[in-house]
Specification:
Length: 247
């Protein structure tokens, strides 16, 4: 009888350890981003940094979320989120009706328009969007969608639309003269003008809202992110982040 009680005690202790072990091991959330989109996300000294990165880290600190980051091409972010390879997407992603069919978005945290950039010494202007000009875009971005739907499909642009996985490649071809222009989010275009020999020749008013994405139906995680955004706005931390990256 004593041996049986001892055996049962050991089994119970084992179950308790497993249960406690399961409780203390926190889930690590994988955040997907496309780190070629300064000042929102970019690589500096081998580390992914930027406004979105600081934002989601601040939310994680407020809500007790352990985070790790994964840098992949922009057009792969939503498929990876849907497949369960990512838990969160923080990548300057515009909230659109089409994307909302695939993922759930947080409340908006930033608004932006689109910009047209050309080489710094180019004489080209807004007319670069018309006729036989070649435009470069990052695949899956709203710049890509705007050019395709408003220019290419309507026959306004008769030149090529060249698609790239990253904006690093877009900029390289633009600077090397292989493209006439590119269309991308205005704050990112502005940052590139400070770093590369390019200039903005037009702003396209699109009134886009950026949101953080989670897998469709993950309301618990979405609620934590939304609460975090609102708390950062209320505390003034959001303004501090905006000042850090956009002044």
């Amino acid at each position: 009888m004593i041996k049986l009680k001892s055996l049962l005690a050991c089994l119970l202790m084992g179950l308790l350890v497993v249960t406690m072990g399961g409780a203390v091991v926190a889930k690590t959330y994988v955040v997907g981003t496309s780190a070629d989109f300064p000042p929102f996300e970019y690589v500096e000294d081998g580390e992914i940094v930027g406004f979105d990165i600081d934002l989601i880290k601040a939310i994680g600190e407020l809500k007790g979320l352990e985070l790790t980051f994964k840098d992949i091409s922009f057009d792969s972010l939503i498929p990876a989120l849907k497949a369960g390879n990512l838990d969160i997407v923080a990548s300057g992603m515009t909230i659109t009706a089409e994307r909302e069919k695939a993922v759930d978005f947080s409340v908006p945290y930033y608004s932006a328009n689109q910009a047209v950039i050309v080489q710094e010494d180019s004489a080209k202007n807004l007319t670069v969007l018309f006729g036989a000009h070649d435009l470069g875009v990052q695949t899956g971005t709203t710049g890509d969608l705007w050019v395709t739907e408003n220019l290419k499909e309507k026959g306004i642009l008769t030149g090529r639309v060249v698609y790239y996985d990253t904006f690093v490649l877009v900029l390289s071809d633009l600077i090397n003269g292989n493209l006439d222009a590119s269309v991308l989010d205005f704050p990112v275009a502005k940052r590139f003008t400070e770093q590369k020999p390019v200039k903005i020749v037009a702003e396209i008013i699109t009134g886009e809202d950026y949101g953080i994405a989670v897998k469709e139906g993950n309301q618990q995680l979405l609620q934590l992110i939304n609460e975090g955004i609102e708390e950062l706005k209320t505390s003034g931390k959001m303004d501090q982040l905006l000042d850090k990256y956009f002044q």
